[in-house]
């Protein structure tokens, strides 16, 4: 399962706080880079999102919890819809039934 994990830094969070925490969690082995499909920062800093691939919501929670004092999380389960497949599905649903 793929998870969209949007983050926004808390008001008093500094860039160095986040840098240190990421490095600490990396060295502790808790960031699970094999599960992170993508890490995106929004222009201007202070927010962004991760795409995390895991079927276990407990594992997702373990990955995100060490950052909760620095950032707030907004987490949603998502799924990929290949564009060509979506167009085919739309056409099938809009075709009149015989």
State the CATH class. Alpha Beta
Report the count of strand segments: 4
Shape: elongated
Helix content: 25-40%
- Biggest sheet statistics: 4 strands, antiparallel
Mean pLDDT: 95
Strand content: 25-35%
Low-confidence residue ranges: none
> CATH superfamily assignment?
Dimeric alpha+beta barrel
CATH architecture: 2-Layer Sandwich
Strand order of the biggest β-sheet: 2-3-1-4
Structural class per helix/strand content?
Answer: alpha+beta
Describe the structure.
The chain is α+β, with helices and mostly antiparallel strands and 98 residues long. The chain has one domain (2-94): Alpha-Beta Plaits, CATH 3.30.70.1060. Helix content is 35%, strand content 30%. It contains 3 helices and 4 strands, in the order βαββαβα. The protein has helices spanning 15-28, 57-64, 83-94; strands spanning 2-9, 36-41, 47-53, 71-78. The protein has a 4-stranded antiparallel beta sheet, with no helix packed on it. Strand 2 and strand 3 form a beta hairpin. It starts with a strand and ends with a helix.
């Amino acid at each position: 399962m793929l998870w969209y994990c949007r983050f926004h830094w808390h008001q008093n969070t500094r860039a160095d706080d986040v840098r240190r925490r990421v490095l600490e969690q990396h060295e502790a082995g808790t960031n699970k880079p094999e599960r992170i499909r993508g890490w995106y920062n929004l222009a201007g800093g202070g927010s962004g999102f991760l795409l995390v691939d895991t079927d276990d919501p407990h594992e997702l929670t373990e990955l995100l919890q060490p950052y909760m004092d620095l950032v707030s999380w907004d987490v949603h389960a998502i799924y990929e819809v290949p564009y060509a497949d979506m167009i085919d599905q739309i056409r099938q649903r809009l075709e009149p039934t015989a």
